[in-house]
Amino acid sequence: MKKYLLFALAALLVLAAADDGKRKPVIFMIGDSTMANKSIRDGAPERGWGMMLPGFFTGDIIVDNHAVNGRSSKSFIDEGRWDAVLKKMKEGDYVVIQFGHNDEKPKEDRHTEPGSTFDANLRRFCQETLERGATPILMNAIVRRNFKAPADSLVATDSRQKPSDVDESGEGLILYDTHGAYLDSPRNVAKELGVPFVDANRITHELVQGLGRDESKKLFMHVEPKTNWAVPEGRIDNTHLNVYGGRVVAGLLVDAMAESVPALAPFVRHYDFVVAKDGSGDFFTLQEAINAVPDFSKNHRTTILLRAGDYDEKVTVPPSKINVSLIGQEGAVVTGSDYAAKKNTFGDDCSTSGSASCYLWAPDFYCEGVTFRNSAGPVGQAVACFVGADRVVFNRCRFLGFQDTLYNWARRSRQYFRDCYVEGSVDFIFGWSTAVFDRCTIHSVADGYLTAPSTDKGDGAGYVFHDCNLTAAEGVKAYLGRPWREYARAAFIRCRMGAHIRPEGWHNWGKKEAEKRAFFAEYGSTGSGANDKARVKWAHRLREKDLKEYDTRQVLAGNDGWDPIALFGLGE
Predict the structure, then answer these.
(1) Are 189 and 317 within one domain?
(2) What CATH number did the domain enclosing 213 receive?
């Protein structure tokens, strides 16, 4: 046990180092078909629980699944698959080891004996993992859905199984074990070596027995004929999991892993839905997940994980899908290529509003780590994200486009952007809403205007930029903003401005009346683009005593006291 504790401490140090940009720890998975990645061709519904595991960790952990259909501990070694894992393994990594289903089979190339060869193979996996400074996690096999009494007379006469409980298929109400002594070997080896053990069989047995004979079918490959292209003739399989079963079992086992290896616990996450292009989630598209969110769910915030990939779909979050949190893993991109002049189905222009890659209409939307992109390029207005809702938060998100990238559309809407990146050229942050940008990077890719507010008279602070960094591609020149409507408002406070910001700072868009009615202001600007003396005469210079009214909480409070910083824990 002492030896294992030393390795656990080393693993904690490696996880801490991952936050400093160093190599991320890897969880290697070795096992059989119940753990393996599966084909998603033609909508195939089978999943190994290991395939679903990445959806339960933050991006600070990498899951590398080497489990393969039909492999036992013996064949996994004999085929060189274990050697391949060893070559990749580094100090601070983890190896989840789960065999048994195929070790039980009589075939010579697979069969091992519990208490003998099976234990020896498990012992080898663990020892060679420990030698590399990694942590082995032993598991026994997940349960088969077997409600039929085995032929063994001692079991068959189990008094718990009443003849009246047996249905026409021969299934009763009691779940029976099929793995025998193979369940004991991982536990015994773990105790012998002092390494973590997860009783996956007990956990899944309790799950299946708890659901009962009929409900438990929802976890496994019970497919009706002519309902799935990949399984046209249907299938009854009580060993292998479907999408739902894979997610449920992975969620149970990841919690057990975190309990056995506390170093993993801070990186475990549970989401209501996972979206993944590789089939490791509940849905393949983000829109499917949004559609599954309960309408007007006031007492539950629905969490959605968007795994890495380009999701080329026109996403709409309708007004009824309130209280949604969308979390993106690294590389999660919602993308589109529509633009204002592009023709729609009826031959009309899409329009600026119709060009967006994503539409947000539901209030109380939180988004973290997602990139919103419009890839149309320099073809006129092409919106990446259209925000038509109130109380919307974007944390560490990216908005990529060329013209009209981020459309803060809704009047009397409050939006908060924290540590985000926005790029474009002309009017690439524009609209009626009140929006605060804290510590964001605003990047100009071509000559133009950072902002084009159209604030209504007396309606909020317009755009407020706190401690932002204004950058640009080489040779670019840009204005801080221009008034789309005559009462436009924007303020840049303590922002670092690159040399691309024009000395005059602001443009009147040819609207002389806007010079009197618009309110464009700065305070504490720094950098080579902070040319206070050269600014247009109608721009405003804020004083320190003015800053209170630009405080993020005050700007966004409204009539309901909304405080996104406190609500989502976004303090320093």
Answers:
(1) no
(2) 3.40.50.1110
- The token duo for 147 is 């409600």
Per the CB < 8 A criterion, the answer to whether 40 and 229 are in contact is: no
**Segment 491-547, tens digit of pLDDT:** 999 999 999 999 999 999 999 999 999 999 999 999 999 988 999 999 999 999 999
* Residues shown for the chain: 572
The secondary structure of 256-268 as a DSSP string is: HHHHHSGGGGGGB
Residue 240: both structure tokens together: 């292998």
Q: Could you read off the pLDDT of 400-450 as tens digits, one per residue?
A: 999 999 999 999 999 999 999 999 999 999 999 999 999 999 999 999 999
Establish whether 184 is a catalytic residue: no
User: Which residue out of 93, 338, 404, 438 is catalytically annotated?
Assistant: 404
Domain of residue 389, residue span: 384-561
CB 450 within 8 A of CB 470: yes
| Contact (Cβ atoms closer than 8 angstroms) between residue 98 and residue 140 | yes
Tens of pLDDT along 276-287?
999 999 999 999
Q: Which of 208, 241, 267 is the last residue of a domain?
A: 267
Burial of 469 (0-12, 13-18, 19+ CB in 10 A): middle
DSSP state at residue 455: P
Query: Could you give the 3-state DSSP secondary structure of residue 193?
Result: helix
Q: Is 404 a catalytic residue?
A: yes
Closest CA to 199 of 142, 151, 116: 142
Measured distance CA(230)–CA(44) in Å, rounded: 5
Task: Please pick, among 119, 338, 364, 427, the residue that the annotation labels catalytic.
Answer: 427
